[in-house]
Amino acid sequence: MLIEIDSHSGVPIYRQIIDQIRSHVITARLGEGAQLPSVRDLAGRLKVNPMTVSKVYSYLENEGVVERKRGIGLFVAKISKTKQDKAKTAMLEDIIKKAAVTAIEVGLSEKDAANMFSKLFRQNNSEGRTK
Amino acid sequence: MLIEIDSHSGVPIYRQIIDQIRSHVITARLGEGAQLPSVRDLAGRLKVNPMTVSKVYSYLENEGVVERKRGIGLFVAKISKTKQDKAKTAMLEDIIKKAAVTAIEVGLSEKDAANMFSKLFRQNNSEGRTK
Amino acid sequence: MLIEIDSHSGVPIYRQIIDQIRSHVITARLGEGAQLPSVRDLAGRLKVNPMTVSKVYSYLENEGVVERKRGIGLFVAKISKTKQDKAKTAMLEDIIKKAAVTAIEVGLSEKDAANMFSKLFRQNNSEGRTK
Amino acid sequence: MLIEIDSHSGVPIYRQIIDQIRSHVITARLGEGAQLPSVRDLAGRLKVNPMTVSKVYSYLENEGVVERKRGIGLFVAKISKTKQDKAKTAMLEDIIKKAAVTAIEVGLSEKDAANMFSKLFRQNNSEGRTK
DNA sequence: GTGGTCTAGACCACG
DNA sequence: GTGGTCTAGACCACC
């Protein structure tokens, strides 16, 4: 499970971790039932305070994204297909809307904006494959 | 100059104002040399503390977006056309790339993603016109 | 870390602190990675308002001189050796040039001016040692 | 009489003008009895508020550097040779001391610092001649 | 514990 | 009139 922290971004560390784990679950890169690393392990890898990771897990558990099995560990919770789809769509619409609004503010035409989007889509898609 | 503050968004007030003014300047809704409202005026209108606005202006001056004329007021700084274009493009590419990457992660095809983007573009564009 | 404030100098307190800390960093009296005193601590020692110190730190962070680690504290940022040397040289050349120009305007010969410079160098250097 | 204003320097405009006129007088580029431009004239040339120039003149008059002749204009006051020399030396020592202290802080040896000073002296001196 | 933000209100410098 | 600085004290987010 790849998680990257940018300590200069202004976004709180715990938020960055939550967002990335949630995104991993929604896009099924972290499948149902998969075990999450222990608090200590993840904290060590990310070089953050264990308390921060602990907070992250509590948050995600509260959200219903993960489930704690006492004495065993944390696992990705079961999500209904529809719920997952909803979450996916919501996440995607949110970010695409922001992009569209920015394009409008900058004064791009719909055609130019769509071209730019497609170009960046292709670029990052092929990069993704080779990775 | 329209500035809106959402006090529930979690984003600090001064950041919200900075972002909106900067966006106004980049998109040339606030043209070069235009005078900004006085600290007290803007503070009064937005119902925030003058010092908050003062902080905003200091920040923007530091960024080179506005220029102070002592005892007279604040004005939109002269930005070279190319520099402005660069800033615009960078801002736009950044957000569109994020959107594209998310679409890829979610597993959308290029065509579906582009359609979604165009749809949201049209929606927000017409909203903008009626405002 | 020694910082002295002259409240009668006309120079704003926050500027005095900024200049002194920056100078400490550039001259490596405050080495890379060194932790700076907390806002409250420094404010207490200098007998100024915490917000004044906070402003100082924000300013220095913006300049890239220090780095914030959330909830932990402030640390001297990593500056590349060359960058640091450049900053040093630029700072020095600037002030020495001013001195030389003034000497020229006043009508001193190169020899007399150089003597005066050396004399003042020695005077202030020995003072520095005893301090 | 050459006066240059740098509106980005942070030094108040009126201070910049005062310092430059005083320096002109001390170094005798503006000799005793020379007439200064009228408030309106200087304000127009420097593109500053006439009140600012007026303040400058009052300040200099108060300092004894210039003398007002009612209905005629402002003139450089008579200064005793010793007084002028003292002022010259004070001005020079002040700036050279600053340069020396900076050189010390940066860690230069006396020799290196003196060399740098001499080099900049020669550079600016020859430039001055051709001007 | 750390820093970040904001307020209310004061006084000063500048033009 | 303009912005700049500072204080005293509050509350919040983060680790």
Compose a concise summary of this entry:
4 copies of one chain form a homotetramer. The first copy, chain A, has helices spanning 13-26, 39-46, 50-63, 81-106, 110-130, and strands spanning 66-69, 73-76.
What features would you describe in this structure?
The structure is a homotetramer of 131-residue chains. Chain A folds into two domains: 13-76, Winged helix-like DNA-binding domain superfamily/Winged helix DNA-binding domain (Arc Repressor Mutant, subunit A, Orthogonal Bundle), CATH 1.10.10.10; 81-130. In chain A, helix 1 crosses helix 3 (50-63) and helix 2 crosses helix 3 (50-63). By secondary structure, the first copy, chain A, is mainly alpha-helical. The mean pLDDT of chain A is 88. Chain A is globular and about 55 Å long. Chain A contains five helices and two strands. A two-stranded antiparallel sheet of chain A has the order 1-2. In chain A, a hairpin with a 3-residue loop joins strand 1 (66-69) and strand 2 (73-76). Chains in contact: A-B, A-C, B-D, C-D. The structure holds a DNA duplex (15 and 15 nucleotides).
